[in-house]
Amino acid sequence: MVKEQLNLYSQNGGEPEPTEVSAGFDPDATACLIEGDTLEVCAQLPSEAFQLIVSSPPYNIGKDYEQVRDLDDYLNRQEDVIEHLVRLLAPTGSLCWQVGNFIDTSLPRNEVYPLDIYFHPLFKRHGLQLRNRVVWHFGHGLHARRRFSGRYETLLWFTKTDDYTFHLDPVRVPSKYPGKRAYKGKNAGKPSGNPLGKNPSDFWSFDVETFLEAEWSEAVWDVPNVKSNHPEKTEHPCQFPVELVERCVLAMTDEDDWVLDPYGGVGTAAVAALKHGRRAVSVDKEADYLAEARRRLAMLAHGTLPTRPMGKPVHKPSGKLTQIPLEWKEEASE
To answer: What is the predicted pLDDT for the residue at 311?
Structure first.
């Protein structure tokens, strides 16, 4: 089995620690980057070994790494994978499945199918319990001319049992009214909030500055999607941000736990796991993506991997034109 040793630098400073990166599953490794078919690889992984399984599966929309199938065929194949994932999940573990929409382009009307609605019964059929349907909002959506631009996706958080790991404190957000006191009841006059902040809710649009300044109905904390100017951007066309996975890692695992991404792409989930002292398995059938994942872990080990910090405020455009394009002036005069 091929192994590579890296020195993973602590995120809080301190001495680097040896990190074993394996090309196959190795319980003594820190990260395993496995090339192969998801179903075949998952069939060989040990049962109940993973405290967190987090992934964004192919959406069946015709990307280079997938074959577009009939929706029912696509879901049947995904259920075969899900059956293995349930076996791999620890009794106290969590499974987070992040999906968008399948758009059936074979129909003249290009009908939209929200994949989270179709995946939900598949997970329920295998005994998992839904804890949250998290809405991930982002500012740059799909281009559309005959419908509104899609600017959110969903993350379904399931657990295997009622006895699941959950740590709220590491992912709390600033309170709207820090130090507020209860005005009635047995706790009247006492602080009513938590000094570490409040529960971030199931609407993940994380912009700290807006959260502190806006009314509750407008409060957001943005997690931008990975576009061309994002510091984490690679060749992968549907890469999700490290920040999105970090919240799952911090809230649903403990140090040294195993995290699995069965559709690992360029290793985003592995990066998030290793950043916080967890171990990771990332599976993908594309050798180029595995090579990029290996490169990203090496950069993480040397403290040079560019990632977007959790909670960093998102750029807010003023909406004002600094310079009117000449073409707009010409069109207005016609």
So the answer is: 54
What pTM does this model have? 0.79
Q: CB neighbours (10 Å) of residue 150?
A: 16
Residue 129 CA to residue 133 CA, distance in Å, equals 11
| Cβ neighbours around 234 below 10 Å, total | 18
Q: How far apart are CA 200 and CA 173, in angstroms?
A: 6
Token reading at 232: 């984490």
Taking residue 196's Cβ as centre, other Cβ atoms within 10 Å add up to 13
With beta carbons less than 8 A apart as the criterion, state whether 85 and 42 touch: yes
Low-confidence ranges of the chain (pLDDT < 70): 1-19, 59, 61-66, 105-109, 139-142, 205-239, 306-325, 327-334
pLDDT of res. 9: 47
The whole-number pLDDT of residue 53 equals 98
Query: CB under 8 Å to 179, separation ≥6 — which residues?
Result: 191, 193
20-32 burial: b if 16+ Cβ within 10 Å, else e? bbbbbbeeebbbb
What is the number of other CB atoms lying within 10 angstroms of the CB of residue 264?
27
Structure tokens at 111: 């009908």
Beta bridge partners of 136: 153, 204
What is 51-106 written as a DSSP string?
EEEEE----SS--TT-----HHHHHHHHHHHHHHHHHHEEEEEEEEEEE-EEEETT
Q: By three-state DSSP, how is residue 316 classified?
A: coil
